[in-house]
Amino acid sequence: MNSLFTIVALPQEYDDGVLRFNVVFIPRNISPLNDLTAWGFPGIGPFAEAADRFKLEAKLIAGLNALPEDADVNYRELLDVAIPETAKPIYEAMHAQFEQVDDMPSVDQEPPPVQATKFIKKYLPFSYRRSFNFTNPRTDDAVIDDSYHCAFKSQGSDSAFTQTSDHISWGKVYAHCLRHPGLAAKAGLIFTDLTITVPNSQPPSVRLALFGTVMVRSVKIRPALAASPGCLKQCA
Predict the structure, then answer these.
(1) Is 160 part of any domain?
(2) HSE of 217, CA atoms in CB hemisphere, 13 A
(3) 201 in a domain, yes or no?
(4) Is the same domain home to 176 and 62?
(5) Is the domain of 19 the same as that of 80?
(6) Which pLDDT value is given to residue 90?
(7) Which stretches does DSSP call E strand in the chain?
(8) Whole domain around residue 129: which residue ranges?
(9) Distances (CA, A) of 148 to 152, 155, 161, 205
(10) What is the pLDDT of residues 174-217, one digit of tens each?
């Protein structure tokens, strides 16, 4: 199955055994106002109302020599985070403002098949060409003359053209929030200034190596992860 949530840990600063980092927690194009029971998360309720009904756990892996695996974790620590109370009114207001937000989950939608007999020519604007030592296009599908404009004008109107629906997905709403860090934080998508301190019992060299890779996962929804292991995407 496709992931329903994406969690990304973003290290910001390391100082004397303390790592400061941010976490991005993003639902994957599902409504934050609908109950998550149908997706295998009983007892959590809607994402916007989850509050502290889920917990995040940070995991440290020494070094950068391999892709992060849970079996390689050297140190782990629960994080004191919760979806803020401001999340629900924010999503309700945005739902009302955009008017036609699609409440239907669309995480399983596939793009239309590629038509191998159709090709697209791309015009390379002067601003692009002057940004580096440009000489000539590397493919016949890129042009720098008027042929693109002429071909476009010669086609005339397309009788089969239909206007795109005004409906937008929740994924686009989340993308809009993430362009405004303050809004994203109040909507429960970003957690900032989180810290981990490795115990002094570890030698200094080991303590520093542990900050090679940081992963964050949700431990409160672990039963759902066991039933649907692909529902959560973790990015170190």
Answers:
(1) no
(2) 19
(3) yes
(4) yes
(5) yes
(6) 94
(7) 5-15, 18-27, 56-61, 75-79, 122-123, 142-143, 190-197, 213-218, 232-235
(8) 122-154
(9) 6, 11, 20, 59
(10) 999 999 999 999 999 999 998 888 766 655 544 444 444 555 55
Per-residue pLDDT at 230: 45
Give me the residues of the chain with pLDDT under 50, please. 1, 105, 107, 205-212, 219-232, 236
CA distance 54 to 21: 19
State how far the Cα of 84 lies from the Cα of 32, in Å rounded to an integer. Answer: 13
Q: Which residues 6+ apart lie within 8 Å of 125 measured at CB?
A: none
Q: Does residue 181 share a domain with residue 90?
A: yes
Q: What share of the chain is helix, strand, coil (3-state, %, to 5)?
A: 30, 25, 45
Q: How many domains does the chain have?
A: 2
> Is 113 part of any domain?
no
Same domain, 78 and 175: yes
